[in-house]
Amino acid sequence: MRAMDGAQETYWRTYYADVHRGDAAWLDYSNERVQAQTFALALEAAGPVAERPCLDAGCGRGHFARALLALGASRVTAVDIAEATITALRRDVPAVDWRAGSAADAAVYDGVEPCALVFTIEVLQYVPLEATLRLLWERVAPRGRLVGVVPNRDCPIVAKAIAKFDTHYDPPTGSRLAAALDSLPGRAWWALRGMSFQADQRVAPYAASEPSTRTDWNPPPNRFLLVAERT
């Protein structure tokens, strides 16, 4: 496992500070429809949100965290590395516990009680995968769920981002992600769904596979949606 160093964290702090200064609400997604369907698939995997405490690790501009609040979550904690955005969100949406820091830093979760739902959407490619999954898993309450979305290293489109960002960007293969989920202690079950861009995207950008624990994905999907439930 490759550990995250200070240079890598500094790289992404600088990169996302620039991205957040832009106008696009969907940050570095392809477009707002890709972001919207990604959020929808994550909510589908999570199940009911109302009256459940939630953690959004890597909240970006805060749209998903605010959706959790609107859906009736009893408590929402949201973490992101873009400090200026978090400062603004604290002012504009005080009902959410906004925290500035890396999703891979245990200290940023100090005082956060275990949550029924823990989300990590488009984050795991920037941090040490196994260590961050374990860290977030520790925040999942009994019978709660960890839900995430991450690019697939074996996808040719993702390979372009790997070439662009070099060692700073480390999306997992399906087999690596499956092994990481399988190693989580106290899990009741886990599953992956492949998210593949459709030729006709007029209704939805992605076609999502059935949930599976398989490790051989052919053809390779663009992204994986992961879900794991605690006993």
Number of strands: 8
> What is the H level of CATH, i.e. the homologous superfamily?
Vaccinia Virus protein VP39
- How many strands, what sense, and barrel or not for the largest sheet? 8 strands, mixed
Strand order within the widest sheet? 3-2-1-4-5-8-6-7
CATH class equals Alpha Beta
Unreliable stretches covering 5 or more consecutive residues = none
Shape: globular
Q: What is the count of helical runs?
A: 7
Helix/strand order, N-terminal first: HHEHEHEEHEHHEEE
Radius of gyration: 16 Å
CATH fold field value:
Rossmann fold
Short note summarizing the structure:
By secondary structure, the chain is of the alpha/beta class.
Please describe what this structure looks like:
With 231 residues, this protein is an alpha/beta fold. It has one domain (6-230): 3-Layer(aba) Sandwich (Rossmann fold), CATH 3.40.50.150. It contains seven helices and eight strands; from the N terminus they run ααβαβαββαβααβββ. The chain has helices at residues 6-20, 32-46, 63-70, 83-92, 129-137, 156-165, 174-182, and strands at 53-57, 75-80, 97-100, 115-121, 140-151, 187-197, 206-208, 223-230. Strands 3-2-1-4-5-8-6-7 form an eight-stranded mixed β-sheet, with helices on both faces. The radius of gyration is 16 Å and the shape is globular. The mean pLDDT is 94.
Summarize the SSE layout with pairings:
Layout: H1 6-20, H2 32-46, E1 53-57, H3 63-70, E2 75-80, H4 83-92, E3 97-100, E4 115-121, H5 129-137, E5 140-151, H6 156-165, H7 174-182, E6 187-197, E7 206-208, E8 223-230
